[in-house]
Amino acid sequence: MRSRTAIWFECKIRYEKVMDDGLPKKVTESYVVDALSFSEAEERIIEEMSSYISGEFDVADIKKSTYKEIFFSDDDSADKWYKAKLQFITIDEKSEKEKRSNVYYLVNAGSFNGAVKNIDSVMGETMIDFVISSVQETTLMDVFEYKKEEAKS
Fold it and tell me: Could you tell me the pTM of the whole model?
C-alpha cells in the first residue's frame, strides 16, 4: 500500500466503444488525474486517453474531487476504486468536547472488505483517532498520477 496526496480532478470521457456483441455504443467513463488546474487536467486526460482510445473522444466534464489523498494497492486483483469517508476525532482544548471532522479518500481494492483493510493498513500507521463512516464503490475506471518527464540531453 502506498498513498499519494495531490490536487485530484475527476474527468468524464465520452467516446464510441465497441461492446462485447460487436456493436458500437456511445459511453461515458470517469477517470481521475492529478493536476494543478482545470486546463492542466484536461490536457493530461487527453494525453493519457489518446493511447487507449482509437478514434475521437470528448472531455465531457471535469470537476475538482473531494478527496485529497489516494491509497494505491499493490495487489493485482485491486481493480475497483472506493470513496471512503473518515471522521477524524479530536478534542477541543477549550471546551474539552470531542470534535469530528470529515475527510474523504479514494481507495484502490478488489472488494469492499479489501478497501476497509487497505484503509486500516494505511491509517493504522498514524496516530490519528478515526472512524470509517462510509465506504462506497465508485464508477471510476482508473487514476493517472503525474509522472516527471526525464530531461532529454
Answer: 0.86
